Amino acid sequence: xxxxxxxxxxxxxxxxxxxxxxxxxxxxxxxxxxxxxxxxxxxxxxxxxxxxxxxxxxxxxxxxxxxxxxxxxxxxxxxxxxxxxxxxxxxxxxxxxxxxxxxxxxxxxxxxxxxxxxxxxxxxxxxxxxxxxxxxxxxxxxxxxxxx
Length: 148
What we know:
Blueprint: H1 2-38, H2 48-51, E1 56-61, E2 65-72, E3 87-91, E4 96-101, E5 106-111, E6 115-119, E7 125-129, E8 135-142
């Protein structure tokens, strides 16, 4: 009788250990997937401040946020770049913009009124100002948000 109960205890213990290991593995995969989501398209050389520094000026940066001044003059097209973090943008002009995406597609955004907008993390882009009004915006990137 003692052999059976000891054997059963060892078996239950092994099953519990396997369940904990599986849960740990699943949690690790989920955490890695969340961390990698924000970096799916981002590489240091594609960061907006590295790839398009003439269009992205850092106004403030700390562990929580990065605040950028974004400008694109009429007739200009930014180099391809990626924003690593979701952001709130305060756009104070009404330019006519075309967005050229990392996957090769483009979309005409038209002329939008000034305002505040939310931008999740998405693939890289190059903004082109096809109008006659400059783009001027403040972009507040939220470093600790999970992918947007």
